[in-house]
Amino acid sequence: MQPLQHDWPIRDDTMCASLKFAVEWGNTHAEEAMTIGETATKLVQEDLKMDYVYDYMFHVVDEYSELESVVDKMFPLVNTWTFHVVKSLH
After folding, report:
1. CB-side neighbour CA atoms (13 Å) of 62
2. Which pTM value belongs to this model?
């Protein structure tokens, strides 16, 4: 995505002022604003197809699965805790 071609950049540190400026600019430059919107729509329809999204998600999950799991280390502690709680209830 290219700023001012596919979207209008909004600054995090001056969000309200950036939004106000963007709206005012869009109101005074309707044709250019429409072109940005049409270009963004075309980008989404052509480059952000669900096949690409699913492919990206697969790779993220695959990479994430290779990270060390905290849950695996947690189970012995949980089982020990559960045993002591159940034992104390009897």
Report:
1. 6
2. 0.52
